[in-house]
Fold each of these.
Amino acid sequence: MPELPEVETVVRGLRASLPGRTICDVRLGKTDFIDDPIALAERLPGARISDVTRFGKFVSVDLVPRGPAAQLAERFYLVIHLGMTGQLTTSRPGDPVAPHTHVFFALDDGNELRYTDIRRFGRILLVPESGIALFRDRLGAEPLEIRLEEFCARFGTRHARVKALLLDQGILRGVGNIYADESLFRARIHPARIARDLTKTQLTTLHRAVREILKAAIRFRGSSISDYVDSAGNRGEFQQRHRVYQREGKPCFRCREKIRRVIVAGRSSHFCPRCQPAPRSRTPRRKVKKP
DNA sequence: AGCTCTTCCTGAAAGC
DNA sequence: TGCTTTCAGGAAGAGC
């Protein structure tokens, strides 16, 4: 599943070839995951790509509009979320088309940018310059940039399970199920712990663990569990270094205890029961009795 | 506030 | 063997 490291890897690949290119043509297959497919087909041809960036799990293709008034016209952004199974790849027009490829962007150098998405949980939309700041600000902090004080402020005050907060894109943008589990394992924190109950030391450790895991995953070009590939169609390698994710029943790399899987925040959560001690079980407290 | 459930979608895997 | 059911999950929305 594309999370921050996978999206970052895709963006780095696209950034090497797309800036400077002009989009010549857009062809669409199924469009139910595109906010405004008509606008997409009308506004992109002629637009020049100025950059490719990432915020959270979103890819942003930064565009300068076409036409004589281009100097004055507002820039805009092709914003893409890969969902669960989205792939953004560059190909030659004659290359075989993967099943479930629904968007083709023809470029002026003869190449083609394609969007493939088996489950169509992804999303594509155009955002005008005037709206991009708000779009970005509705998301939380970048995990690789957030400072410890802000991290503690965002987590340490919340009475929610730490796993749920890690997955909440309004708090941190970019962490998904894989890297939440791997980060919690590294920090030796149980996914169901209430964030507010964590010590300052634990929050500090988690803050560091998240950054270290994400950076390591970027170094290994992401995790390919099922469908993820980068912009050249290559799989990542970080799945070989997972410590807990999808390792249920296998021995912990630290203590040999069997890795367990439970549902927390509605998600499969993998952890080592010895390295990541469970929170104090919810108290069988007696109710205040009325006479 | 925070939790659970539901919806979207497909393919792999499990069940019969 | 082959059909049916279940499950996985990012995000948003409903309801409690």
Amino acid sequence: MSQFTALPDRASAWSEQLRTAGRRVTKQRLAVLAAIDAHPHSTADNILELARRELPGLSAQSVYVVLGDLTELGMLRRFEPPHSPALYETRTGDNHHHAICTRCGRIEDVDCAVGHAPCLHPHWNDDQQPMSIQIADVLYQGICQDCLAAERQDGD
Amino acid sequence: MSQFTALPDRASAWSEQLRTAGRRVTKQRLAVLAAIDAHPHSTADNILELARRELPGLSAQSVYVVLGDLTELGMLRRFEPPHSPALYETRTGDNHHHAICTRCGRIEDVDCAVGHAPCLHPHWNDDQQPMSIQIADVLYQGICQDCLAAERQDGD
DNA sequence: CACTAATTGCGAGCTAGTCAAAATAAGTGC
DNA sequence: GCACTTATTTTGACTAGCTCGCAATTAGTG
């Protein structure tokens, strides 16, 4: 079936996904996808800048539209850390989480500890109507090794 | 020690906390705290409206300043659900989480499942510098009972 | 009760994102 | 390969939510 696509040709895989979803395959969409794939956890602004290197005429609004649409389709994942514009990544469907360094802002992916999402079973209080949970977005906040080291040097 | 403060006189407790933190006890701060306490998960706008009932002259900017400062002090907790302005609550320090209904936007508190935060121990990939984690903010996204029921009625 | 630094109010300004309508281009059939 | 249809992109104006600097006010201290 895919004997000639052993190497991950993301672009054609994306094209297929787009078509399957009833969307047209435009250079704008591919440029946005490629930009995010190359630099995960990018803001709409970063993505615009990156994508423009391949597609100089690309407009900011197109990026917003594409991001919104592809996120809805599930081809992108969007997450919004505090005090930051929304970030996007192409890694979807694996329910992975994020760790953000409150000092320098660095963001790392964290695999969902176990194969099955461990946090999908909240503990409801007696007076609450439980919800049917679909996603558990976990945002770890801490300090990364670099900042810890820098802090030690600075005396404190 | 507290034999005369059996009833939770939040206002005086807040005053004490403020003084301890080196802040002055102003009616603006107390009005904001009272508003949030009465209506947890409020936006800055809601808080302004509520607080103005007690303090008609209160300005929006003061609310923002107070919210930012008190959040930094740890007297308020701030969280930013997707597609929503920041929300505030007075319940701090217990590492509880939030569940949001993606349909109607309703938000519920969810106690941290176990006494010890279950999610404070992420699983790091081999090539990653682990961070020193301090908080794990969990945002459950799902559909609440009401919306589920409404959906069933609507045919789908 | 006066003093002084902290707090609040006011206005301008900024960033991230949205909306409507016209211009463009992807996919379709001939 | 060409014309057609309609999704997509662009253009440009606009909004929400929040921040900044400076002047006016006020809480807390002695």
